[in-house]
Amino acid sequence: MTQETLTVTDNRTGRTYELPITDDTIRAMDLRQIKVHEDDFGMMSYDPAFKNTASTRSAITYIDGEKGILRYRGYPIQDLAQNCTFLEVAYLIIDGELPTQAQLEEYEGYIKRHILLHENIKQLLDGFRYNAHPMGMLISMIAALSTFYPEARLVDDFELRQLQMTRLVAKVPTLAAFAYRHVKGFPYAYPDPDLSYAGNFLNMMFRRAEPNYVPNPVLERALDVLFILHADHEQNCGTNAMRAIGSSRVDPYSAMAGAAAALYGPLHGGANEAVLRMLEEIGSMEEVPSYVERVKAGEFRLMGFGHRVYKNYDPRAKIIKQIADEVFEVTGHNPLLDIALELERIALEDEYFVSRKLYPNVDFYSGIIYQAMGLPKTMFPVMFAIPRTVGWLAQWAEMLTDSEQAIARPRQVYTGYGERDYIPMDQRD
Ligand code: CMC
Fold first, then answer.
1. Whose CA is nearest to atom 18 of ligand 1?
2. Residues 35 and 72 occupy one common structural domain
3. Is the shortest distance between the CB of 171 and ligand 1 below 6 Å?
4. Structure pTM?
5. Long-range pairs for 278-282 at CB < 8 Å and ≥24 separation?
6. How far, in Å, are 28, 49, 78, 110 from residue 411 at the CA level?
7. Residue 16 belongs to what H/E stretch?
8. Which residues are catalytic?
9. Phi, psi (rounded to 5 degrees) for 403
10. Candidates 361, 380, 392: which one to mutate for ligand 1, based on the most atoms within 8 Å of Cβ?
């Protein structure tokens, strides 16, 4: 019979230790018993950027990066994208089960009830410059919401937690659309409760003077599917930030502002914006080979390519590619798609990308679709943050109710000076 243990021999002392193995992991705290002297601190594991450290047990999202599998609560992403609405998936991710018709209608009702913003938020927005990045505005407004709902600090109260989660899922699209309209100089468009989640978002973004905005059904569905694909992705940088900040038991608005800030970066949710800039810089299909050569020479990275977990085609990118065709039938062809397809074709045949298992990720094609829908590049990370709100909140609630979790506080290996004598100012170089 195989033993579920790892035997470790410390060659400094010759001592041997048996460490239990659970779910293919050992507990880092079990290393602490490994000491050279009784008064040693004990051994730690060193893992910059958490490349091989599980920080939590989680029942929300499953990814098999080698096989290109993504599931929310056990359901394959392809099935959810094909059959569900975004709010159905949001319910699934937060609650754990797909809703019945009655549960879904009740949830949709709650979302509609909380979709409006306090009017003072508009004054906050007015304080931003006309060319402020909408993601910067969104982050600030999410943080500001905590001041409107001070009871949100009671994070251990189940009912209050549910209320804040509903508020955030409902209000983030409104914040996002208001940020866009601030940049445009358009009057803010209020939500229309008769429209779907995605349809209403398009309404708040693009309504002009018409009394009732009617979203194009193809674009509405495409956006809903894009939202489903971005809803959660287990322990990525933004989610890790949400959990780490939330572990101090701060309110979810403050924690989520931090998560959104993490998402903003070009290596994370800001990559879709960076992809568009890259495709525009390449300019034509003829320029693709020379651009790829510069990537291989280490001048810069191919944005929208590669992933910490996927070492295969990102299943979300596959679905997005299909959506692109449907969207372009409505909006007309986006010539950047041809450059993107050529870039993908050349990269996937190239030894540099093949040997490193670098494939297109979710951000490679999403920006081209958003651009075709009429969104400026600066809105792309915001479009990522809207659906990811669901994942952040589900992960936050899971963290709070996990008795093994505590305030996130990594250790370090100190590499600085030992104790030094203080140097008075007049003796310093
Ligand atoms: N272009 C060129 N080379 C790359 C790329 C890329 N996009 N990504 C990784 N590599 C190379 C890298 O230089 C390294 O090569 P070597 O072994 O010779 O030093 C090797 O592949 C491994 O890269 P890594 O940096 O160790 O991988 P990582 O897991 O730390 O980084 C990543 C993952 C997503 C940050 C990275 O692939 C990247 O920077 N991609 C471009 C930005 C991007 O598209 N981000 C969106 C990610 S998906 C959505 C999301 O998370 O928000």
1. 356
2. no
3. no
4. 0.94
5. 278/302, 278/303, 278/304, 279/336, 279/339, 279/340, 279/343, 279/368, 280/336, 282/339, 282/343
6. 11, 13, 39, 42
7. strand 15-20
8. 268, 307, 363
9. -65, -15
10. 361
pLDDT in tens, 343-359: 999 999 999 999 999 99
Q: Same domain, yes or no, for 120 and 42?
A: no
* Whether the CB of 153 sits within 6 Å of ligand 1: no
Q: What CATH number is associated with residue 358?
A: 1.10.580.10
Residue 284 lies in a domain: yes
Question: Are 15 and 110 part of one and the same domain?
Answer: no
Tokens in use for 263? 């998402």
pLDDT of residue 1: 57
Ligand 1 proximity of 308 Cβ (cutoff 6 Å): yes
Angle value at C-alpha 165, between 161 and 169, nearest 5 degrees? 175
What's the domain count of the chain?
A: 2
DSSP annotation of 188 reads P
Whether 33 and 70 share a structural domain: no
* pLDDT tens per residue, range 145-180: 999 999 999 999 999 999 999 999 999 999 999 999
Do the domain assignments include residue 395? yes
Q: Which atom of ligand 1 is nearest to the CA of 304?
A: 44
Ligand 1 atom nearest to CA at 49: 30
CA atoms within 13 A on the CB side of 258: 19
Question: What are the two backbone dihedrals, phi and then psi, of residue 16, each rounded to the nearest 5 degrees?
Answer: -115, 140
Q: Is the CB of 301 under 6 A from ligand 1?
A: yes
Q: Tell me, what amino acid is at 184?
A: K
* Measured distance CA(190)–CA(126) in Å, rounded: 16
Q: Is the CB of 236 under 6 A from ligand 1?
A: yes
Q: How far is the C-alpha of 189 from the C-alpha of 209, rounded, in Å?
A: 10
Q: Choose which residue among 264, 307, 344, 363 to substitute to test ligand 1 binding: the one with the highest number of ligand atoms within 8 A of its C-beta.
A: 307
Is the separation of the CB atoms in 91 and 99 below 8 Å? yes
List the end-to-end C-alpha distance of the chain, in Å, as a whole number: 67
